[in-house]
Amino acid sequence: MTVRDFAGLLWESFSPSMKNIDDGNLLHYGRTRYWLEDIDEAKPENSLDKRTAARIIHQFMRMELGIKDIPDVAKARELKDLYTCRICTAHVAQVYVRGIMDAEDFMDSDGQYVRLFNMTEPVDDKTARQIIERVKALVD
Question: Would the pTM of this model clear 0.90, i.e. be above it?
Answer without folding.
Answer: yes
